[in-house]
Amino acid sequence: METQRKMIDVWSEVFKKPVTAETDFFDDLEGDSMTAAAVAHWAGIEFGVTVPIEEVFERPTPAELTAYVDELLAG
């Protein structure tokens, strides 16, 4: 749950508006390739993992991207 809260915080910072739900959809937030790169970059820094930009498009909600990061952290 802590990972999910941190991921929502990353998205809020990148989009410069409150992302209030783990199911907020990337396209609904008006995401583009630049914001995808920023989400991937800052999520990687926050969690100490490499998040490819493609994963932001393939997992377009904080919840889905959190699940991916959790997989990476679990090894």
TrEMBL record:
Stored SMART domains: PKS_PP (SM00823)
Keyword Acyltransferase attached: no
Family matches, as Gene3D superfamilies: ACP-like
Native source species: Amycolatopsis minnesotensis
Protein name (record): Carrier domain-containing protein
Keywords: Phosphopantetheine, Phosphoprotein
Carrier domain location: 1-73
One Pfam family from the record: PP-binding
Keyword Zinc-finger tagged: no
